[in-house]
């Protein structure tokens, strides 16, 4: 048996049948990480002790046999380093939290722990989830396991790379503007950005609270669904979380209307990406789905709208890093004379340049005299974007789009041009503004002289219709 | 292009500062980004309501219960331990003035 090649359900069966123990499984993946992660660098922290404790718990449930082992029980996983695990260092890949220890479990972590999931470690990311390549980590760059000269995407690049490199069966990431879907696409794995409110955000370090959502990465849509089912649901500790009411009807591909937004197939898209996505659309058509052209007329405003709203919220959320309450501090710097000095010197020294850029932009758009022209206008444009999606999703059951306009780019390629980095999120950002859910899954591969690179497609459904996306994805995976 | 003075003002509001050598580069990048987001000016927002959340949320209240503070934190000492400086049950900071 090769544990890294089996699905979560298959591994679950192996565990129940006692063909392998959770402890052996944990050791298999921990060894693999120790041997191979030096080439990829997907982990910031390895949590071996916690992993073995969780594995023991799963093995005890199996040994007793009087209690059902949850599907994620005994399954090795990784957690993005902006999600709290009690007693474990949590850095958000920032120097300002380099030696911060989480004082409690995030709700998603508590749910995974309670179900016996085996947490192997914390994964690398862009600092405070701000970036699209994981190059903004204050510690090191993560490499794409499909081609180590390229980025894994971001901001959840470590979580995507860990799944692609078979260091774990699934991982959690966070998605504010594409931070799960774009790295899933770049690394050739599946990643879900759930509907806003479907998963509790309690215990995830806030970036833009009206856009942030936690979601899973896995090798395929079925595994993603298993993890989504394990972490979703209303949480009294997050007042924006809701219970999902799922339709029980089975999806029939013959009745499925797939909407293709015409604004997403204009200029600026890589030719190989376009070809792969168009071929995926044809495959759905051959399976009997009806392809309909839909329009998202305010697409051109999504990116500027996002960069106003997300940075405005970030500038408020990141005010908590002040050198007083927690994190790295300049309080003992002899040049610092007063409280304001502690704030300014600590933030100046320990925040990275992209984080500073976004705090500055957010502060600017909220500042006196500019609020109406920027922030309030962006909130109105957001309504227009949400209305676009409501209309398009009344004409189609699911929308199918590219995830990223380009193939995974080279490490260093976009680091000197923040604006061109922002443009790599052009197809993912609207989904967060509208609050709908979206699944990124491999659509195909492109052969380059240097090797094969994955291309991801995005399925988008109405709020809380994750099940429909999973069913449509599974149908595609069966024939692809 | 946004002026150096304006950047210094926003930096002050942001509790940040930029050294002389970094200011010029930042000014250029920041101006380019501002110019980009200004493209929203073209959007027709006449009669459109602003939105802050994609789902309908209203204020959620809980009972004022000293045992249930709406958190999973079970030990306040963990918060004090996280602070760069504390004394007794208090966080310690430099003087305000």
Question: What is the fold's blueprint, element by element?
Answer:
The complex is a heterodimer of chains A (480) and B (97).
Chain A: H1 8-16, H2 22-40, E1 43-46, H3 48-64, E2 76-80, H4 107-114, E3 118-123, H5 157-164, E4 170-175, H6 181-187, E5 190-193, E6 213-218, H7 221-231, E7 257-261, H8 271-286, E8 290-294, H9 302-317, H10 339-350, H11 353-366, H12 372-395, E9 398-402, H13 418-422, H14 429-434, E10 437-448, E11 451-461, H15 466-479
Parallel strand pairs in A: 2-3, 2-4, 7-8, 7-9
Antiparallel strand pairs in A: 1-3, 4-6, 5-6, 5-10, 9-11, 10-11
Chain B: H1 4-13, H2 20-37, H3 76-82, E1 86-87, E2 90-91
Antiparallel strand pairs in B: 1-2
Would you mind describing this structure in some detail?
The complex is a heterodimer of chains A (480) and B (97). Chain A is an alpha/beta fold and 480 residues long. Chain A has a single domain, classed as Amidase signature (AS) enzymes. Chain A has helices at 8-16, 22-40, 48-64, 107-114, 157-164, 181-187, 221-231, 271-286, 302-317, 339-350, 353-366, 372-395, 418-422, 429-434, 466-479, and strands at 43-46, 76-80, 118-123, 170-175, 190-193, 213-218, 257-261, 290-294, 398-402, 437-448, 451-461. In chain A, strands 1-3-2-4-6-5-10-11-9-7-8 form an eleven-stranded mixed β-sheet, with helices on both faces. In chain A, helix 4 links the parallel strand 2 (76-80) and strand 3. In chain A, helix 5 runs parallel beside helix 6 (181-187), helix 7 runs antiparallel to helix 15 (466-479) and helix 9 crosses helix 12. Chain A is globular, with a radius of gyration of 22 Å. Chain A starts with 7 loop residues before the first helix and ends with a helix. The relative contact order of chain A is 0.13. Chain B is mainly alpha-helical and 97 residues long. Chain B has a domain at 4-40. Helices cover 36% and strands 4% of the residues of chain B. Chain B has helices at residues 4-13, 20-37, 76-82, and strands spanning 86-87, 90-91. In chain B, strands 1-2 form a two-stranded antiparallel sheet. The mean pLDDT of chain B is 90. Chains A and B meet through helix 9, helix 10, helix 11, helix 12 and helix 13 of A and helix 1, helix 2 and helix 3 of B.
């Amino acid at each position: 048996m090769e544990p890294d090649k089996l699905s979560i359900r298959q591994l679950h069966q192996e565990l129940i049948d006692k063909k392998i123990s959770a402890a052996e499984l944990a050791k298999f993946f921990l060894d693999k990480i120790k041997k191979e992660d030096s080439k990829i660098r997907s982990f910031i922290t390895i949590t071996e002790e916690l992993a073995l404790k969780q594995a023991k718990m799963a093995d005890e449930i199996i040994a007793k046999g009087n209690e059902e082992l949850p599907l994620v029980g005994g399954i090795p996983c990784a957690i993005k380093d902006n999600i709290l695990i009690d007693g474990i260092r949590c850095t958000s890949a920032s120097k300002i939290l380099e030696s911060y220890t989480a004082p409690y479990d995030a709700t998603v972590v508590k749910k995974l722990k309670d179900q016996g999931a085996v947490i192997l470690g914390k994964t690398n990311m862009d600092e405070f989830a701000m970036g699209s390549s994981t190059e903004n980590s204050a510690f090191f760059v993560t490499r794409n396991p499909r081609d180590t000269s390229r980025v894994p995407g971001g901001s959840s690049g470590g979580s995507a790379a860990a799944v692609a490199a078979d260091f774990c069966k699934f991982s959690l990431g966070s998605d504010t503007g594409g931070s799960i879907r774009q790295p899933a696409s770049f690394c050739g794995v599946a990643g879900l950005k759930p509907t806003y409110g479907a998963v509790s955000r309690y215990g995830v370090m806030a970036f833009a609270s009206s856009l942030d959502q936690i979601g899973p990465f896995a090798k395929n849509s079925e595994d993603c669904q298993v993890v989504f089912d394990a972490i979703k649901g209303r949480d009294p500790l997050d007042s924006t979380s809701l219970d999902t009411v799922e339709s029980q009807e089975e999806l029939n591909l013959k009745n499925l209307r797939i909407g293709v937004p015409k604004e997403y197939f204009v200029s600026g898209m890589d030719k190989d990406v376009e070809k792969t996505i168009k071929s995926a659309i044809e495959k759905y058509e051959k399976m009997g789905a009806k392809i309909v052209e839909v329009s998202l007329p305010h697409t051109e405003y999504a990116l500027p709208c996002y960069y106003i709203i997300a940075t405005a919220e970030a500038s408020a959320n990141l005010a908590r890093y002040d050198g007083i309450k927690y994190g790295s501090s300049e309080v003992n710097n002899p040049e610092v004379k007063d409280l304001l000095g502690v704030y300014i010197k600590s933030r100046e020294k320990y925040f990275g340049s992209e984080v500073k850029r976004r705090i500055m932009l957010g502060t600017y758009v909220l500042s006196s005299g500019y609020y109406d022209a920027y922030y309030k206008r962006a909130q109105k444009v957001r309504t227009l974007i949400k209305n676009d999606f409501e209309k398009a999703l009344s004409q189609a059951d699911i929308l199918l789009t590219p995830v990223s306009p380009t193939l995974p780019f080279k490490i260093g390629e976009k680091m000197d041009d923040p604006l061109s980095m922002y443009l790599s999120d052009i197809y993912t950002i609207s989904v967060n503004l509208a609050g709908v859910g979206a699944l990124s899954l491999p659509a195909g591969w492109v052969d380059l002289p240097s090797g094969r690179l994955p291309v991801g497609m995005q399925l988008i459904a109405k709020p809380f219709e994750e099940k429909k996306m999973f069913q449509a994805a599974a149908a595609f995976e069966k024939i692809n | 292009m946004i002026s150096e003075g304006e950047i210094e003002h926003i930096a002050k509001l942001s509790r940040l500062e930029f050294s002389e050598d970094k200011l010029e580069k930042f000014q250029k990048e920041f101006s380019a980004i501002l110019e980009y987001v200004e493209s929203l000016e073209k959007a027709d927002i006449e009669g459109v309501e602003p939105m802050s959340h994609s789902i309908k949320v209203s204020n959620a209240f809980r009972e004022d219960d000293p045992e249930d503070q709406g958190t999973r934190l079970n030990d306040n000492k963990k918060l004090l331990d996280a602070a760069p400086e504390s004394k007794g049950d208090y966080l310690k900071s430099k003087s305000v003035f």
